[in-house]
Amino acid sequence: MTANPRHIHLIGICGTAMASLAGLLQLQGHRITGSDKAAYPPMSDLLRALGIPVLEPYAESNLDPAPDLVVIGNALSRGNPEIERVLDQRIPFTSMAALLREECLIGRSSLVVAGTHGKTTTTSMLAWIYQTAAHRDSALEPSFLIGGVAENFGTSFQLRPTRTFIVEGDEYDTVFYDKGPKFLHYFPDALILTHVEFDHADIYDDLNQVKRAFKLLVNLVPRRGLIVAYDGSDNVTECVSHAFCRVERYGFGEESDWRIRNLRYANGRTQWEVHRNGALWAELTMNLAGEHNALNATAAAALAAGQGIGKDSIIDALAAFQSVKRRLEVRDRINGITLIEDFAHHPTAIRETLRALRSVYPHARLWAVLEPRSNTLRRKVLEADLIASLSQADRVVLAGVYQQERIPEAERLHPEDVIRALNTQGTPAELHPGADAIVAAITPQLAPGDVVALLSNGGFDGIYEKLPARLRERFAASAAPPSRSPS
After folding, report:
1. Is the dihedral of CA 43, 49, 50, 54 positive or negative?
2. Domain ranges, ordered by start, for the chain
3. Could you tell me the CATH superfamily of domain 329-478?
């Protein structure tokens, strides 16, 4: 508990990192309020459970009475009424990343998980490894901040009086007045680097700018530190090539320090061998499917081992690891139709999600239902990659691009072009304006044995609730006995 509790107000509190920070600050004894334009699960549920009020929509009056400190979310800009009042009245303000460092990271060992893909799951795995190890040594119990709700913990944050703080390092920009990536505030003592690809097309002009951000992060790791880096990416290799600390590579390559071999999925479990420096180190198993999750788990294992965590704790933790909300999350099963939600934000993530589902449901008709919502998917820069990723599904359904009018005309993704390309190459695809139209169109088409991947990094206009409700109505109507005609 802090000796100087403050009233701290978070503008944009329903973002995953902001909501997690709100929880950490509350644990320190601060009084927390927040505001957002719209709240949706899982973070709205988390904040409600914490008793933290969320004011909607943004308004100057949300700052009555004036708080001691305001935290401004990175998605907000000048013109927001609360930001304008903060500036006019010089209410003290800061960013999420800067305050996290000030309140939680100084004086601790900062373990950062970064990369274009996989960082939320990998951070959750690393935190769970430390939590499992704490059963043997309580000093290992971690503090953490994750950009999603880790199911083993039931939360996205934890604060303990121990030394280790595990944090998901986001490459997105920090706040409207600090356009550098958030992870540059975290000063890692050790780092996992999963993937480096072009993403966040709204703030990075090209891949070289993305790589520059990750190179800056690598340059912050001290000589005594450790970087665990994926071995299957030339971009990652370039980013870690001038590190001043020890670098250990993980992946499938023959020269990998932590090499994955004999990967298989059977009876609901993924199993694989990890060879360390050419010798069998451990046989690992977990509930999650997909090559990408085996990579995530191996990265977490490698960093934990490098920090002195015992092999038995690592094996036990991964075997008991559940998942992260909105990552291959089974939302419902209705009459043999399986509905799965995934936080799709990039063509590579979509590809790996569909590949994982193929391994779990090899005989199913696989539907990909996508809302192009992220700042990258809303642009045409990765259109060819998106088409290639979606073509792994048996049926594809696209919603209209989220807030397409906010994207410059020359940069916009035109979903009709994606649909045309998919149909031309033999993947049946259809376009509908939004969730209601999609639900109406596909409900009659779905059949027992189908698997439907609902892909969006936002609320998708409630499709996660609307589709199962409509399916239940359909099957309830078909099961009802026919009415008798009066004799």
Report:
1. positive
2. 7-96, 107-320, 329-478
3. Mur ligase, C-terminal domain (3.90.190.20)
CA 5 from centre of chain: 31
Rounded (to 5) percent helix, strand, coil in the chain: 35, 25, 40
Compute the C-alpha angle 393/395/398, nearest 5°: 100
With bands split at pLDDT 50, 70 and 90, how would you rate the model's confidence at 484? low
User: Residue 259: beta bridge partners?
Assistant: 251, 275
Residue type, 214: F
Q: From edge to edge, which strands make up the β-sheet containing 226-230?
A: 155-158, 143-150, 164-169, 109-114, 190-193, 226-230, 246-251, 258-266, 269-276, 279-286
| C-beta separation of 355 from 392 below 8 A | yes
- Report CA dihedral (450, 456, 457, 459) to the nearest 10 degrees: -100
Preceding amide of 347 cis, omega within 30: no
Spatial separation of the C-alpha atoms in residues 271 and 70, rounded to whole Å? 47
Per-residue pLDDT tens digits for 135-159: 999 999 999 999 888 999 999 999 9
The identity of residue 243, as a single letter, is A
Class for domain 107-320, per CATH? alpha beta
Q: Which helix (H) or strand (E) holds 224?
A: none
Contact 63, 91 (CB under 8 A): yes
Residue 482's pLDDT band (cuts 50, 70, 90): low
Please tell me what DSSP assigns to residue 458.
S
446 Cβ contact list (under 8 Å, min separation 6): 337, 367, 452, 471
Q: Average pLDDT, whole number, for the chain?
A: 93
Q: Which CATH architecture has domain 7-96?
A: 3-Layer(aba) Sandwich (3.40)
pTM: 0.86
Does the structure show a pLDDT above 80 at 235?
Answer: yes
Q: What CA–CA distance (Å, rounded) separates 333 from 313?
A: 34
Number of H helices, E strands in the chain: 14, 23
In angstroms, the first-to-last Cα distance of the chain is 77
152 close to 325: Cβ distance less than 8 angstroms? no
Distance CA(418)–CA(244), nearest Å, equals 44
Reference 304, options 317, 286, 323, 291; nearest CA is: 317
Contact 263, 291 (CB under 8 A): yes
Instruction: Give the pLDDT confidence of 428-467 residue by residue, as tens digits.
Output: 999 999 999 999 999 999 999 999 999 998 888 899 999 9
